[in-house]
Amino acid sequence: MQEKEIVSLRERVKSPPAKTLVQSYYKPAVEAGIKYLFEHEMNIHLAHSLMLERQGIVDSDSVTKILKTLILLKKNGAATLDIDYLQEDLYSYVESYIIGQLGPDTGGRMHTGRSRNDLNTTSWRMALREKLIALMENLNQLRQSVLTLAEQNIGTIMPGYTHSQHAQPISLGYYLLSVADLLNRDYIRVNHALETSNCCPLGSGALSTTGFPIDREYVSKLLGFPSLIEVGYDGVASRDDAHEAAAAIAVLMTGISRVATDLQNWNTMEYGMIELADEFSSVSSIMPQKKNPQALEHVKGSVAYVTGSLVTALACSKNTSFADVNDGVTAPNVPLMEAIAKTSLASEIISGVLQTLKINHERMSHLAEVGFGTATELTDVIVRETGLSFRKAHNIVGMVVRETIESSRTALSISSEDLDAAAQKLFGITLNIEPLAIEKSLNPQLNIKLRTATGGPAPETMEKMIARRKSDLTKQSNQLSQLRSVLEQANSHLLALAEKSAGRSLACSTGD
Q1: Are 9 and 92 in contact (CB under 8 A)?
Q2: Domain 117-359 in the same topology as domain 10-112+492-509
Q3: For residue 50, which of 510, 505, 487, 489 has the smallest C-alpha distance?
Q4: What sign does the CA torsion over 445, 451, 457, 461 have?
Q5: Where does 117-359 sit in CATH, by number?
Q6: Of 16, 10, 308, 371, residue with least CA distance to 160
Q7: Distance between CA 317 and CA 328 in Å, rounded?
Q8: Computed from CA positions of residues 302, 305, 308, 313, in that sequence, does the dihedral angle turn out positive or negative?
Q9: In sequence order, which residues have a C-beta less than 8 Å from that of residue 112 and are 6 or more positions away?
Q10: Which CATH superfamily is domain 10-112+492-509 in?
Q11: What is the predicted pLDDT for the residue at 507?
């Protein structure tokens, strides 16, 4: 009597799933599995099957047939599967395919010693690992673009702003170096999220591991993980890996959006400090003069989605049981994958914007000269030259600035007479500051050269800081390349082991 070929997991229930459940949950879950998990899940099946044979849990002949079928399915892709969306997830269709090819007595052994709980969370961790590495590579390209432009513009004088008002003169390179440091911290945050996700929960089973003598460390190594999530319950219940990744990219995108906002402002006619390249701009269907900063608007708009993925990840887990539950464990996955993709693309776009940016050096320098950003240095000169307290000097210069603006003059027109007049009005004193000292204090370039303190914008200070950051970036990029190489080698080794095991056993069975 031929054994019945079981191709469904739904023996516990009598009725097929409701159409509404199929459309709202099963279909999206299967499609997400195909899009994000297929390659990872196939590798997990290969590694798990090799382990089952190695540990003597499943006989070599069965494992050989399973491996051969898996390798063929991996090669042909998910299109091979007969998907009707009536089963819950990708794995259900993979198992149905294996059993359909080999029968339930052989194909049904593949899932021995594990659960979909640990299978799915391992698959998503592998997908998250892959996406985070790709993001970090793009982020490093952006950091390189920022540092290159900073180095090229150490001497490009511009206004530094606080509260959208001229504050003190800086260089464009100094602004960009600040951005580079922000992005470095973003990289560190994303890298930590990668380290959190790059731990293997496979072997956790449904929640309490398994009674079979599995070798979790062996499978973890085959899949390129450096370590295990040791406690089985933690392996299937926790989602702090998703929470941390979502938080890291939300912080990253928030910072990028702030830089994009500055670039968008500087790109306006009123600022006139930069111009976006044509390839990152759009046009109007009615206004022929328009050249819109579409790339920047797109990046800024993406921030809402990325921030939403963080809220989704946290809200899905809020008030859920600390256990394997779909709302807390599974629901955040797709929004997070999409958010990482948007973040990676945003990094690439901003990198391209910076690489092709046209900078109006003269306009930047002019704005720095006329915008009273040198008033702090003028105040410091009064303190140094007269011994007056900083607060009194601040009062004098504040009055001079107000009166200069009221008389429609620029900062460059401030004279010794202006300072003495204000000093007389406020304190009944005369300062007698040398005109040359005033002239130097009102020179934005000299202002910057004076700021040689640690972290200041003086050119020699900037050169040293940029050199250190370029060196740090090189080290981080090399470490990331090494990680990618480790994973590629693990993947190649796994496939080679599977092919060797299947091929050797098959050869023996045919007498070759």
Answers
A1: yes
A2: no
A3: 505
A4: positive
A5: 1.20.200.10
A6: 371
A7: 4
A8: negative
A9: 52, 57, 58, 212
A10: Fumarase/aspartase (N-terminal domain) (1.10.275.10)
A11: 43
* pLDDT digit string, tens, across residues 263-275: 999 999 999 999 9
Residue type, 108: G
Distance CA 31, CA 501 (A): 31
Report CA 8 to chain centroid distance, whole Å: 39
Predicted TM-score (pTM) of this structure: 0.94
Indicate the domain borders of the chain: 10-112+492-509, 117-359, 375-442
| DSSP string for 75-132 | HH-GGGS---S-SSSHHHHHHHHHHHHH-HHHHTTTTTT--HHHHHHHHHHHHHHHHH
Helix axes 172-197, 116-152, angle to 10 degrees: 170
190, 250 contact by CB (below 8 A): no
Contacts of 103 (CB under 8 A, 6+ apart): 3, 5
Beta bridge partners of 161: 166
Rounded alpha-carbon distances, angstroms, from residue 281 to 254, 289, 291: 22, 13, 6
pLDDT of residue 5: 54
Of 357, 218, 213, residue with least CA distance to 278: 357
pLDDT in tens, 372-424: 999 999 999 999 999 999 999 999 999 999 999 999 999 999 999 999 999 99
3-state SS, one letter per residue, for 359-379: ECHHHHHHHHHHCCCCHHHHH
How many Å apart are CA 245 and CA 310, to the nearest integer? 8
Low-confidence residues of the chain, pLDDT below 50? 1-4, 505-512
Q: What is the CA radius of gyration of the chain?
A: 32
Q: Who's near 220: CB < 8 A, 6+ residues apart? A: 200, 202, 203, 227, 228
pLDDT at 503: 87
Core vs surface per residue 68-85: b (16+ CB within 10 A) or e:
bbbbebbeeebeebebeb
Region class of 415: left (phi > 0), else alpha (psi between -120 and 50), else beta: beta
| Distance, CA of 379 to CA of 441 (rounded, Å) | 9
pLDDT tens digits along 232-252:
999 999 999 999 999 999 999
**Per-residue pLDDT, 7:** 57
The correct answer on CATH 1.10.760 for the domain covering 375-442 is no
For 17, 145, 248, 390, the CA distances from 484, given in Å and listed in that order, are 41, 22, 20, 56
